[in-house]
Amino acid sequence: MQTKPIRIGTRGSALALAQAHETRARLAKAHGLTDDDFEIVVIKTTGDQIQDRPLSEAGGKGLFTKEIEEALLDKSIDLAVHSSKDMPTVLPDGLGMTAYLPREDVRDAFISPSVEKLTDLPQGAVVGSSSLRRQAQIKRLRPDLDVVMYRGNLQTRLRKLDEGVVDATFLAYAGLRRLGQGDLVTSLMDVEHFLPAVGQGAIGIEARLGDEETARILAPIHHAETESRLLLERAYLAEMDGSCRTPIAGLSHVEGDRIRFRGEVIKPDGSQTHTIEGEGLVSDAEELGRELGKELKAKSGPNFLEL
C-alpha cells in the first residue's frame, strides 16, 4: 500500500510540467493510484535562469539538470522527468536513466506567420533558434537567412514570434503536441533533410541506482523500444563528445530485432556536413552507437567544428 506520496521532480516550464503530469498519469493507471498519491516538485534550474546568452557559453546541457539531480541524490525527490535531448551523456555517480515513455514524433516544426515553409522565406529573413544544431541546418539549407539566438521557453519564443522579433522559428513537434498546441505548426521538417537532435521526442525518467522500490514503480510504464533507441543515440553522442556546443544530429529506428541509425555533424555555419549510417541487432544498440560515433568523429577530423 502507498503510504507516502511519490515525489516527481521537474522543471517548471509548461512543457516540463506536461511531461511530469503524463508520467504521473501513466504511473497512476499502472498502479491503481490517484493524483493525491503523487507530489510534483518544481525545481528551478540554472538553465531556466540564464536567458541572455547561449547555453553553450554558460556550461551546456547540465544546466537544465544539475539542481534536479542534486534533489535526487539528497532524496528530496524519488524520480525526475526530463526531455531526453536535454540530458548530458554522463550522469552523476549513483544516478541513471531508469525508464523511458513511448517516443513521440521526432520531427522539428517550422512556425511562421507569413510563409508555409523554410524555403518560402524571403532573402535575409530572420529565423530564431536556441539550438546550434538547428541553426547549422537552417544555414545549410538557406545560407542567405539571418539566423539569430532565440532563448526562452516555448511560450516565450512563440510570443516573440507574434511580436515580430523574428520571421520564423523552429520547435520540437513533440513538445507542441504534448501541450495540445500542434495546430500552431506551419509545416513539419522531413527527417531526411532535417535530422533531429539525439533523444528528441523521448521523455526520460532518472532515478537513484539501487533504489529498488522506485525501479519497481517505474517498470510497468517503461518502453523498451525507446530505451534501445536512446541507448544507441546517447552512446553515439557521447563518442562525438556532443553537447549543446556542437551541431550534432542523429536518429534511430527499430524494425523487429534490428536497429538502424543515421547521424550527422555540421559546421556551425552550415557549410559542410559529415554523415554516418549503420545497423545492427537491437541487443547491441549501445555498442553500435559507440562504433558509429567513433567512426563519424574520425571522418570529420579534430578541427571540423572550427570556423
Automatic annotation (TrEMBL):
GO terms for biological process: protoporphyrinogen IX biosynthetic process. GO terms for cellular component: cytoplasm. Keywords: Porphyrin biosynthesis, Transferase. Residues 230-297 form the Porphobilinogen deaminase C-terminal domain. Pathway: Porphyrin-containing compound metabolism; protoporphyrin-IX biosynthesis; coproporphyrinogen-III from 5-aminolevulinate: step 2/4. The keyword Transferase applies. The modification S-(dipyrrolylmethanemethyl)cysteine is found at residue 244. Residues 6-215 form the Porphobilinogen deaminase N-terminal domain. Its EC number is 2.5.1.61. The porphobilinogen subunits are added to the dipyrromethane group. HAMAP family: Porphobil_deam. Belongs to the HMBS family. Monomer. This is Porphobilinogen deaminase.
